[in-house]
Amino acid sequence: MVxxxxxxxxxxxxxxxxxxxxxxxxGKEYLDSHLCEQDFEFSAAEYQQLLEVLKKSQTxxxxxxxxxxxxxxxxxxxxxxxxxxEGLAFxxxxxxxxxxxxxxxxxxxxxxxxxxxxxxxxxxxQHHEQFNTKSLHLLEQIADAQLKHxxxxxxxxxxxxxxxxxxxx
Length: 169
Known about the structure:
Layout: E1 5-7, E2 10-11, H1 12-26, H2 29-34, H3 44-65, H4 77-80, H5 84-149, H6 151-168
């Protein structure tokens, strides 16, 4: 049904695509200029048929858009009960509200990241300080051993150093 001609030579997909493309340019008045109410008479049976087609098309698009797509939050009254200017004002206000929520969320995440960064920095600074303390202690022990044992300690430590490098490779 989606690929069969619906209005003249246009399929359902092409009609929706053209409307969405032109709606950006001229609003719902564009569609009004192409359709005449006198040309359409709907019976209850036709209404049910169209309703079924629309239900099927919703399932086609719902898989594409996901369960929480922003367009699903729009209420039909935006298009049916509002003028173009009212709809625009409503959409702009909604956008401002959503941007405010997004900004608050950004602030929240920024604060959490900043706090995590500070904690992580403190952790690594403490770790670095402990490493420096242990390194200084080791250097003191080496210096004491050099004073106590002299050249023999340096020879043994050089041999041990070469041996450790070979073991690591």
